[in-house]
Write a structure and sequence with these properties.
- The protein is mainly alpha-helical.
- The protein folds into two domains: 277 residues, ABC transporter involved in vitamin B12 uptake, BtuC, CATH 1.10.3470; 32 residues.
- Helix content is 78%, strand content 1%.
- Strands 1-2 form a two-stranded antiparallel ribbon.
- The longest helix has 34 residues.
- It is a multi-pass membrane protein.
Length: 351
Protein backbone atom coordinates (compact mmCIF):
# COMPACT_ATOMS: atom_id res chain seq x y z
CA UNK A 1 0.00 0.00 0.00
CA UNK A 2 2.83 2.40 0.85
CA UNK A 3 4.49 1.72 -2.51
CA UNK A 4 1.21 2.40 -4.30
CA UNK A 5 0.73 5.60 -2.32
CA UNK A 6 4.25 6.79 -3.10
CA UNK A 7 3.64 6.11 -6.80
CA UNK A 8 0.56 8.33 -6.87
CA UNK A 9 2.37 11.27 -5.30
CA UNK A 10 5.71 10.84 -7.04
CA UNK A 11 6.80 12.50 -10.31
CA UNK A 12 6.57 9.04 -11.89
CA UNK A 13 2.80 9.46 -12.14
CA UNK A 14 3.15 12.67 -14.16
CA UNK A 15 5.59 11.03 -16.55
CA UNK A 16 3.29 7.99 -16.84
CA UNK A 17 0.33 10.23 -17.74
CA UNK A 18 2.46 12.06 -20.30
CA UNK A 19 3.57 8.80 -21.91
CA UNK A 20 -0.05 7.60 -22.07
CA UNK A 21 -1.09 10.88 -23.67
CA UNK A 22 1.67 10.62 -26.27
CA UNK A 23 0.84 7.04 -27.27
CA UNK A 24 -2.95 7.48 -27.14
CA UNK A 25 -3.33 8.30 -30.88
CA UNK A 26 -1.14 5.30 -31.69
CA UNK A 27 -3.28 2.81 -29.77
CA UNK A 28 -6.66 4.33 -30.62
CA UNK A 29 -8.24 3.30 -33.90
CA UNK A 30 -11.07 5.84 -33.59
CA UNK A 31 -10.37 9.35 -34.84
CA UNK A 32 -13.41 10.68 -32.99
CA UNK A 33 -11.91 9.56 -29.66
CA UNK A 34 -8.71 11.44 -30.49
CA UNK A 35 -10.78 14.54 -31.28
CA UNK A 36 -12.65 14.23 -27.96
CA UNK A 37 -9.38 13.91 -26.08
CA UNK A 38 -7.95 16.99 -27.84
CA UNK A 39 -10.98 19.10 -26.93
CA UNK A 40 -10.77 17.78 -23.35
CA UNK A 41 -7.17 18.99 -23.22
CA UNK A 42 -8.33 22.43 -24.41
CA UNK A 43 -10.94 22.64 -21.66
CA UNK A 44 -8.33 21.45 -19.16
CA UNK A 45 -6.13 24.44 -20.07
CA UNK A 46 -9.06 26.76 -19.30
CA UNK A 47 -9.73 24.92 -16.02
CA UNK A 48 -6.09 25.42 -15.00
CA UNK A 49 -6.70 29.14 -15.44
CA UNK A 50 -9.74 28.93 -13.19
CA UNK A 51 -7.65 27.01 -10.65
CA UNK A 52 -5.24 29.96 -10.42
CA UNK A 53 -7.87 32.51 -9.43
CA UNK A 54 -10.24 30.18 -7.55
CA UNK A 55 -8.10 27.32 -6.27
CA UNK A 56 -4.96 29.26 -5.34
CA UNK A 57 -6.29 32.78 -4.74
CA UNK A 58 -9.76 31.88 -3.45
CA UNK A 59 -11.80 34.16 -5.76
CA UNK A 60 -14.73 32.52 -7.57
CA UNK A 61 -14.81 33.97 -11.10
CA UNK A 62 -18.13 33.20 -12.80
CA UNK A 63 -17.14 35.04 -15.99
CA UNK A 64 -14.42 32.54 -16.90
CA UNK A 65 -16.46 31.12 -19.79
CA UNK A 66 -16.86 34.65 -21.15
CA UNK A 67 -13.08 35.11 -21.36
CA UNK A 68 -12.86 31.72 -23.08
CA UNK A 69 -15.30 33.08 -25.67
CA UNK A 70 -13.32 36.32 -26.02
CA UNK A 71 -10.22 34.36 -27.03
CA UNK A 72 -12.22 32.32 -29.52
CA UNK A 73 -13.87 35.41 -31.06
CA UNK A 74 -10.59 37.32 -31.37
CA UNK A 75 -9.15 34.49 -33.46
CA UNK A 76 -12.37 34.17 -35.47
CA UNK A 77 -12.74 37.88 -36.23
CA UNK A 78 -9.08 38.45 -37.10
CA UNK A 79 -8.75 35.40 -39.35
CA UNK A 80 -12.15 35.57 -41.10
CA UNK A 81 -12.84 39.30 -41.34
CA UNK A 82 -9.29 40.68 -41.51
CA UNK A 83 -7.34 37.85 -43.14
CA UNK A 84 -4.87 37.25 -40.30
CA UNK A 85 -3.00 34.00 -39.98
CA UNK A 86 -3.84 31.84 -36.97
CA UNK A 87 -0.68 32.30 -34.89
CA UNK A 88 -0.67 36.14 -34.87
CA UNK A 89 -4.39 35.97 -34.04
CA UNK A 90 -3.62 33.46 -31.26
CA UNK A 91 -1.13 35.89 -29.69
CA UNK A 92 -3.69 38.69 -30.03
CA UNK A 93 -6.25 36.50 -28.25
CA UNK A 94 -3.91 36.05 -25.29
CA UNK A 95 -3.28 39.80 -25.16
CA UNK A 96 -7.02 40.49 -25.35
CA UNK A 97 -7.58 38.09 -22.45
CA UNK A 98 -4.95 39.94 -20.41
CA UNK A 99 -6.34 43.41 -21.21
CA UNK A 100 -9.99 42.56 -20.55
CA UNK A 101 -8.98 40.55 -17.50
CA UNK A 102 -7.10 43.55 -16.11
CA UNK A 103 -10.02 45.94 -16.72
CA UNK A 104 -12.59 43.60 -15.16
CA UNK A 105 -10.28 42.60 -12.32
CA UNK A 106 -9.48 46.17 -11.26
CA UNK A 107 -13.20 46.85 -10.81
CA UNK A 108 -14.54 43.50 -9.58
CA UNK A 109 -11.78 42.57 -7.12
CA UNK A 110 -12.70 45.50 -4.90
CA UNK A 111 -15.59 43.26 -3.86
CA UNK A 112 -15.23 40.19 -1.66
CA UNK A 113 -16.66 36.67 -1.49
CA UNK A 114 -20.15 36.24 -2.95
CA UNK A 115 -20.35 39.89 -4.05
CA UNK A 116 -17.36 39.29 -6.32
CA UNK A 117 -18.95 36.09 -7.67
CA UNK A 118 -22.24 37.85 -8.43
CA UNK A 119 -20.44 40.74 -10.13
CA UNK A 120 -18.45 38.40 -12.38
CA UNK A 121 -21.64 36.47 -13.18
CA UNK A 122 -23.07 39.75 -14.48
CA UNK A 123 -19.89 40.40 -16.45
CA UNK A 124 -20.19 36.99 -18.09
CA UNK A 125 -23.78 37.71 -19.05
CA UNK A 126 -22.77 41.10 -20.51
CA UNK A 127 -20.09 39.38 -22.62
CA UNK A 128 -22.73 36.93 -23.88
CA UNK A 129 -25.12 39.76 -24.82
CA UNK A 130 -22.39 41.72 -26.62
CA UNK A 131 -21.42 38.68 -28.67
CA UNK A 132 -25.03 38.05 -29.60
CA UNK A 133 -26.20 41.62 -30.29
CA UNK A 134 -23.11 43.32 -31.76
CA UNK A 135 -23.69 41.93 -35.25
CA UNK A 136 -21.33 44.34 -37.01
CA UNK A 137 -18.38 42.89 -35.09
CA UNK A 138 -19.36 39.40 -33.99
CA UNK A 139 -21.85 38.41 -36.76
CA UNK A 140 -24.56 38.13 -34.09
CA UNK A 141 -26.39 34.91 -33.36
CA UNK A 142 -25.28 33.39 -36.68
CA UNK A 143 -21.74 33.03 -35.41
CA UNK A 144 -18.56 32.89 -37.46
CA UNK A 145 -17.60 30.01 -39.76
CA UNK A 146 -14.49 29.04 -41.73
CA UNK A 147 -12.08 30.08 -38.99
CA UNK A 148 -8.47 29.59 -40.04
CA UNK A 149 -6.75 26.57 -38.47
CA UNK A 150 -3.21 26.71 -37.07
CA UNK A 151 -0.60 26.80 -39.81
CA UNK A 152 1.62 23.75 -39.96
CA UNK A 153 5.25 23.48 -40.90
CA UNK A 154 6.99 21.03 -43.19
CA UNK A 155 5.02 17.79 -43.35
CA UNK A 156 2.87 18.67 -40.29
CA UNK A 157 -0.70 19.66 -41.11
CA UNK A 158 -2.70 20.84 -38.11
CA UNK A 159 -5.97 20.56 -40.01
CA UNK A 160 -5.68 16.82 -39.39
CA UNK A 161 -6.83 15.43 -36.06
CA UNK A 162 -3.67 13.69 -34.85
CA UNK A 163 -1.22 16.59 -35.46
CA UNK A 164 -3.65 19.00 -33.79
CA UNK A 165 -3.93 16.58 -30.86
CA UNK A 166 -0.19 16.75 -30.28
CA UNK A 167 -0.24 20.54 -30.66
CA UNK A 168 -2.87 20.86 -27.93
CA UNK A 169 -0.99 18.34 -25.79
CA UNK A 170 2.14 20.50 -26.04
CA UNK A 171 0.18 23.56 -24.88
CA UNK A 172 -1.33 21.54 -22.02
CA UNK A 173 2.09 20.34 -20.84
CA UNK A 174 3.36 23.92 -20.96
CA UNK A 175 0.32 25.11 -19.00
CA UNK A 176 0.74 22.47 -16.29
CA UNK A 177 4.46 23.20 -16.01
CA UNK A 178 3.83 26.94 -15.58
CA UNK A 179 1.19 26.33 -12.90
CA UNK A 180 3.58 23.92 -11.17
CA UNK A 181 6.30 26.55 -11.08
CA UNK A 182 3.79 29.15 -9.90
CA UNK A 183 2.53 26.98 -7.03
CA UNK A 184 6.08 26.53 -5.69
CA UNK A 185 7.09 30.17 -6.08
CA UNK A 186 6.79 33.08 -3.68
CA UNK A 187 3.94 34.43 -5.82
CA UNK A 188 2.06 31.15 -5.44
CA UNK A 189 2.49 31.24 -1.66
CA UNK A 190 1.20 34.80 -1.74
CA UNK A 191 -1.94 33.64 -3.55
CA UNK A 192 -2.44 30.88 -0.95
CA UNK A 193 -2.10 33.39 1.89
CA UNK A 194 -4.81 35.54 0.26
CA UNK A 195 -7.05 32.48 -0.06
CA UNK A 196 -6.67 31.70 3.65
CA UNK A 197 -7.45 35.23 4.85
CA UNK A 198 -7.30 38.71 3.38
CA UNK A 199 -6.58 40.21 6.79
CA UNK A 200 -3.79 37.75 7.49
CA UNK A 201 -2.20 38.37 4.09
CA UNK A 202 -2.43 42.13 4.55
CA UNK A 203 -0.84 41.88 8.01
CA UNK A 204 2.11 40.14 6.33
CA UNK A 205 2.61 43.13 4.06
CA UNK A 206 0.98 41.60 0.95
CA UNK A 207 -0.59 44.04 -1.51
CA UNK A 208 -4.01 42.43 -1.88
CA UNK A 209 -5.26 44.33 -4.91
CA UNK A 210 -2.10 43.95 -6.96
CA UNK A 211 -1.80 40.21 -6.35
CA UNK A 212 -5.50 39.52 -6.88
CA UNK A 213 -5.46 41.40 -10.19
CA UNK A 214 -2.33 39.50 -11.25
CA UNK A 215 -3.99 36.16 -10.46
CA UNK A 216 -7.11 37.25 -12.33
CA UNK A 217 -5.10 38.29 -15.41
CA UNK A 218 -3.16 35.01 -15.44
CA UNK A 219 -6.42 33.07 -15.30
CA UNK A 220 -8.03 35.05 -18.12
CA UNK A 221 -4.93 34.58 -20.33
CA UNK A 222 -5.29 30.82 -19.83
CA UNK A 223 -9.01 31.00 -20.68
CA UNK A 224 -8.52 33.17 -23.77
CA UNK A 225 -5.67 30.98 -25.05
CA UNK A 226 -7.82 27.87 -24.62
CA UNK A 227 -10.67 29.60 -26.46
CA UNK A 228 -8.31 30.48 -29.33
CA UNK A 229 -7.23 26.84 -29.67
CA UNK A 230 -10.88 25.76 -29.53
CA UNK A 231 -11.76 28.10 -32.39
CA UNK A 232 -8.88 26.65 -34.41
CA UNK A 233 -10.12 23.08 -34.09
CA UNK A 234 -13.90 23.60 -34.27
CA UNK A 235 -13.71 26.22 -37.07
CA UNK A 236 -17.12 27.61 -36.03
CA UNK A 237 -18.18 29.55 -32.95
CA UNK A 238 -21.27 31.39 -31.77
CA UNK A 239 -22.46 33.38 -28.74
CA UNK A 240 -23.21 30.10 -26.95
CA UNK A 241 -19.48 29.78 -26.23
CA UNK A 242 -19.92 32.57 -23.65
CA UNK A 243 -22.88 30.89 -21.96
CA UNK A 244 -22.54 30.62 -18.19
CA UNK A 245 -23.15 26.88 -18.56
CA UNK A 246 -19.54 26.50 -19.73
CA UNK A 247 -18.33 28.30 -16.62
CA UNK A 248 -20.28 25.93 -14.39
CA UNK A 249 -18.94 22.99 -16.39
CA UNK A 250 -15.39 24.15 -15.66
CA UNK A 251 -16.25 24.58 -11.98
CA UNK A 252 -17.52 21.00 -11.99
CA UNK A 253 -14.30 19.76 -13.57
CA UNK A 254 -12.31 21.61 -10.92
CA UNK A 255 -14.40 20.35 -8.00
CA UNK A 256 -14.32 16.74 -9.19
CA UNK A 257 -10.56 16.74 -9.81
CA UNK A 258 -9.55 18.72 -6.76
CA UNK A 259 -9.58 22.48 -6.32
CA UNK A 260 -6.20 24.00 -5.53
CA UNK A 261 -4.26 20.91 -6.64
CA UNK A 262 -1.87 20.51 -9.55
CA UNK A 263 -3.31 17.43 -11.26
CA UNK A 264 -6.93 17.97 -10.21
CA UNK A 265 -7.99 20.15 -13.17
CA UNK A 266 -6.66 17.61 -15.69
CA UNK A 267 -8.06 14.49 -14.02
CA UNK A 268 -11.43 16.13 -13.35
CA UNK A 269 -11.79 17.34 -16.94
CA UNK A 270 -10.86 13.97 -18.42
CA UNK A 271 -13.09 12.03 -16.02
CA UNK A 272 -16.21 14.13 -16.66
CA UNK A 273 -15.59 14.37 -20.42
CA UNK A 274 -15.30 10.62 -20.91
CA UNK A 275 -18.13 9.88 -18.48
CA UNK A 276 -20.34 12.19 -20.55
CA UNK A 277 -19.27 10.38 -23.71
CA UNK A 278 -20.15 6.99 -22.21
CA UNK A 279 -23.59 8.22 -21.17
CA UNK A 280 -24.43 9.74 -24.56
CA UNK A 281 -26.50 6.70 -25.51
CA UNK A 282 -28.94 7.57 -22.72
CA UNK A 283 -29.58 10.95 -24.37
CA UNK A 284 -31.78 13.11 -22.09
CA UNK A 285 -31.80 10.51 -19.31
CA UNK A 286 -28.06 10.59 -18.74
CA UNK A 287 -28.32 13.45 -16.24
CA UNK A 288 -30.40 11.16 -14.00
CA UNK A 289 -27.25 9.09 -13.57
CA UNK A 290 -24.69 11.86 -13.94
CA UNK A 291 -26.27 14.19 -11.36
CA UNK A 292 -26.43 11.78 -8.38
CA UNK A 293 -22.89 10.59 -9.14
CA UNK A 294 -21.62 14.16 -8.81
CA UNK A 295 -23.60 14.67 -5.59
CA UNK A 296 -22.11 11.51 -4.06
CA UNK A 297 -18.62 12.55 -5.13
CA UNK A 298 -19.00 16.02 -3.58
CA UNK A 299 -20.37 14.54 -0.33
CA UNK A 300 -17.69 11.89 0.19
CA UNK A 301 -14.81 13.69 -1.58
CA UNK A 302 -15.38 17.42 -0.91
CA UNK A 303 -11.80 18.19 -1.98
CA UNK A 304 -12.13 16.19 -5.20
CA UNK A 305 -10.29 13.09 -6.35
CA UNK A 306 -6.76 14.43 -5.96
CA UNK A 307 -7.54 16.54 -2.90
CA UNK A 308 -9.21 13.60 -1.15
CA UNK A 309 -6.25 11.38 -1.88
CA UNK A 310 -3.79 13.96 -0.56
CA UNK A 311 -5.88 14.37 2.59
CA UNK A 312 -5.90 10.61 3.16
CA UNK A 313 -2.17 10.47 2.56
CA UNK A 314 -1.52 13.29 5.03
CA UNK A 315 -3.54 11.60 7.75
CA UNK A 316 -1.81 8.29 7.13
CA UNK A 317 1.65 9.84 7.34
CA UNK A 318 0.66 11.76 10.49
CA UNK A 319 -0.60 8.59 12.18
CA UNK A 320 2.53 6.73 11.16
CA UNK A 321 4.76 9.49 12.55
CA UNK A 322 2.74 9.57 15.77
CA UNK A 323 3.12 5.81 16.23
CA UNK A 324 6.87 6.06 15.65
CA UNK A 325 7.16 8.86 18.21
CA UNK A 326 5.20 6.88 20.79
CA UNK A 327 7.36 3.79 20.14
CA UNK A 328 10.54 5.84 20.51
CA UNK A 329 9.35 7.42 23.76
CA UNK A 330 8.40 4.06 25.30
CA UNK A 331 11.74 2.56 24.29
CA UNK A 332 13.62 5.52 25.73
CA UNK A 333 11.72 5.33 29.02
CA UNK A 334 12.47 1.60 29.27
CA UNK A 335 16.18 2.19 28.75
CA UNK A 336 16.41 5.01 31.30
CA UNK A 337 14.31 3.33 34.00
CA UNK A 338 16.30 0.04 34.02
CA UNK A 339 15.68 -2.61 36.73
CA UNK A 340 15.34 -1.92 40.50
CA UNK A 341 18.28 -4.21 41.35
CA UNK A 342 20.52 -2.45 38.91
CA UNK A 343 19.57 0.93 40.40
CA UNK A 344 20.41 -0.25 43.92
CA UNK A 345 23.72 -1.72 42.79
CA UNK A 346 24.59 1.51 40.98
CA UNK A 347 23.72 3.50 44.12
CA UNK A 348 25.95 1.23 46.25
CA UNK A 349 28.83 1.61 43.88
CA UNK A 350 28.48 5.37 43.99
CA UNK A 351 28.48 5.27 47.81
Amino acid sequence: MDRLMNFFVSPVLKWALLVLAVVFPLISDNEYHIYVMATAFIWAIAVYGMNIITGYCGQLNLAHGGFFAIGAYVVAILTVDHGWAFWPAFIAAGLAGAIFGFLVGVVSLRLKEHYFAIFTLCVGFIIYLLLEKWEALTHGSLGIINIAPPEGFGFVDFTETVPFYYLVLAFLVLSVWLVSRLSRSLLGRTFLAIRISDDLAQSLGINLMRNKVLAFVLSTVYAASAGALYAGVVRFIGPAEADVVHTFDMITYLLVGGIGTLMGPLLGTLAITWLTQMLQSLEEYRMIIFGPMLVILVIFFPRGIVGGFLTWRGRRLANKASQQDQGGESQASTQTSGTPGADKQEAGNNA
